[in-house]
Amino acid sequence: MSVTRENLNNTFVPPGHPYIKPIIVCGIIMALSSRREVISPGSPLYDYILFRSGTAVKAATWIQNGLFYFLFGAHAMETVMFTRRLSEHGVSVLSLAWFKWVATCFVGGKFVFEHFDRVVGKAA
Hints:
The protein is mainly α. It is 62% helix and 0% strand. It has helices at 20-33, 44-48, 54-88, 96-108, 110-119. The mean pLDDT is 89.
């Protein structure tokens, strides 16, 4: 039995419900993990919580660094894997649709995989 693949013809389908909220949350967490100012003196997090203990500042730094490297590393690998799917479904490399899909995947990770599977008819 042959599997038919939906050809997207270089189109981008923006994610909607239920994928848009988790993609936005991933983007916000990625942005916050990349900004040292979030846990620096003068930030609300530091001024109300972290100032009490040097250990809390060290822990927050470890958590922020861990989130940064995990999220950016994992999403970069997912994006590389996602590019193969794009070519299988008729999205040309370096087309505008390709850039939109890749950028969305880098921010949204696994949620974009689920959205893409729904768009191409792989998942119901």
